[in-house]
């Protein structure tokens, strides 16, 4: 899987399958079932790139022919932290790639007047300080939710954090880069801007509503 390092800690993934599926995710005529499946698939594809630097160790195994020296993951612990509720739509796709990962949850909603995130729930693995954490949210718009989630994790001892989103706006990317220069940001697409309502343009609409069939 290829990726383009755009600036600093921002990585925009350009794999053809990701870009192809993202086109259908963006399409307003894509129904809930297909939208959910596509988000799940893209999250799994993104997991390949975001785990590129996981450490390996060499072991010996018996093949049907002989003994072979081969590689396995060296036991680095992974934690997935979806931001509720839309982040849930990306978890299963990643878990299929990393089934041993533990899953925590951060509940945030955006105040419609101030556009600021409000935390209403948090439940994390007890050993987050030992884990590489992947914060998951389909949209990086104003950056408020991701910023608050990352601050919450750091306050509780997390030191190794990555952020995975489907699409992001430059405004949100800048917030994370300014507030958390130690956090790598992985996107399937960097979009143009935010509109007056704080939605990403061109974006894909409200990811939570499209995932769960609500309005």
TrEMBL record:
InterPro entries membership: PRTase-like (IPR029057), PRTase_dom (IPR000836), Upp_B (IPR034332), UPRT (IPR005765), UPRTase/APRTase (IPR050054)
Q: Which reaction does it catalyse?
A: UMP + diphosphate = 5-phospho-alpha-D-ribose 1-diphosphate + uracil
This protein's pathway reads:
Pyrimidine metabolism; UMP biosynthesis via salvage pathway; UMP from uracil: step 1/1
Q: Tell me the residue numbers annotated for binding uracil.
A: 200, 205-207
Q: Which UniProt keywords apply?
A: Allosteric enzyme, Glycosyltransferase, GTP-binding, Magnesium, Nucleotide-binding, Transferase
Instruction: State if Transferase is listed as a keyword.
Output: yes
Note one Pfam family from the annotation: UPRTase
- Gene Ontology MF terms: GTP binding; magnesium ion binding; uracil phosphoribosyltransferase activity
GO CC, sorted alphabetically, is: cytoplasm
What are the EC numbers? Answer: 2.4.2.9
The keyword GTP-binding belongs to this UniProt entry's keyword annotation: yes
Q: Which family does it belong to?
A: Belongs to the UPRTase family.
This one is known as: Uracil phosphoribosyltransferase
| Record: residues binding 5-phospho-alpha-D-ribose 1-diphosphate | 85, 110, 137-145, 206
UniProt activity-regulation remark? Allosterically activated by GTP.
Q: Which cofactor does it need?
A: Mg(2+)
